[in-house]
Amino acid sequence: MTPEQAEYDLIVVGSGAAGLTAALVASIKGLDVLLLERADVLGGTTAISAGSAWVPNSHYDTSGKDSKANARRYLDATVGGHAPDDLKDAFLAAAPAMARLLADHSEVRFRPYPYLPDYYSERDGATLSGRVLETLPFDGRRLRRHFALIRPPLPEFTILGGMMVSRSDITHLLNAFRTIPSFIATVRMLLRHAKDRISHPRGTRLVMGNALVARFLYSLLERSVTIKTAARARALIIEDGAVRGVLASIAGKPEEFRARRGVVLAAGGFTHHPRLRTQLLPAPVAEFSPVPSENEGDGVDLGLQAGGAIGRAHANNAFWAPVSVRPRRDGTMAVFPHFALDRGKPGLIAVNGSGRRFVNEATSYQRFVEAIYAEQARTPSIPCFFICDHAFLKRYGLGMIRPGQTSLRAFIKDGYLASGQTIAQLANALRLDPTALGESVERYNGFAWTGKDIDFHKGESAYSRNIGDPAVQPNPNLGPIATPPFYAIRIYPGDIGTSAGLITNTSAQVLNAEGEPIKGLYAVGNDMNSVMGGVYAGPGCTIGTGMTFGYVAAMHAAG
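User: That's the sequence. What structure does it adopt?
Assistant: Structure tokens below.
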């Protein structure tokens, strides 16, 4: 294969988990594949994510407690009519096969989290473990010069100048001086990182989304798949009603690539598409998103130009997380998603623009933002506020402020953190009603002492308890706000990916206005109208469904 080759069996547009899966599976099945990525690095949103994949009933779950029927009941209880039944069945049938194929024929490997409940853990068919798969760590040094192709993680999710840490790593770091195993694990991580920094710009011990992308890249390189970065797909080549290739610009130079079997659109959805964002996201349109800026809807636009249509039946057209923002030294804006590290811990409440609690702070990030928008319709709540005390901040951190932070001066100076020696002073700093905020804190503190949140039921679900602090009893999500100074940060709705996308059939083929497949055109990942129907059913459901339909598209193209 030469770099000048212009015809392939399959062309994949985009290099997130869905596109990488499509490219790798197609190669495993003997197809000649071209992968085009608009950015100069690979991985898209996957690279900066937790890298978890929601895969029901896979071979990784050896408990024997899950089944296809059980997972289907769960999807019916959560997604319901927001996605077609045949699409749900296609996902549940293909997901285990996808995981098995990749485990048998590539370096893409997972392990189940020992305990990680589905987000609607109280619904029929939910599981407490087994469905959510964690990417195995990967040694980036194995990629040699290609290590630079991996999109770096968000700097706010690293420590010590580019050292990645997983959920279990954080536990060890927080307990380094409490237990011998955590001390040993911490020392090993620090020594490895110190050695890395001698010859690399960041740590090469990759975890989470970086590890997943690296495992895909290593596997694609092993199979000599052609990968082109800084390659933006500009138009589809359509002949006799069928998609036959892609017109792209590579480093500003136009190129034409032909496809014998088809084109897979996996460009990451329309997060930064100015028109679709305004049309499809709720008002007021979210101002902040951690999704890479290249996700401007290129794939969706190409599908629409070919005659495809965007789905309109989802509960949400985007997937959400509460975010806080802070300017970086280089002039860019850091957008920090508050997934699970702080808001579920005991000793924090979220209040609206009137200083009143409005949500179970330990609910899933999707449902948290849904609550923000519902509250905004009644009371100004964008931004809302996280409220905590000094003891909380020191033990758990808060957003971009890490546990045990020695100085808060910079965070207060740039406005990221507000403080007050009393709740009334904090309220005045935030321009909230001091009486209302004081009453909210006092009422919450009463719940903390009894262990029962009668207003929002915080700590009653398995999911909520899982993101709390098990050392705190009787409720791991409830603790008093009592130790001055008191602190707050502003919280905004942030979209972490789009759910609405191009309508497809169960083979991931894009459908036209008449409901017929457009020959040679597939959509997967966030370019596809999600089988989750805008409901975030479990950790890693966007990656799990994206990988599954990437597999489905590749298998269909391979015949």
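The chain has three domains: 1-152+208-270+286-317+499-559, 163-201, 319-495.
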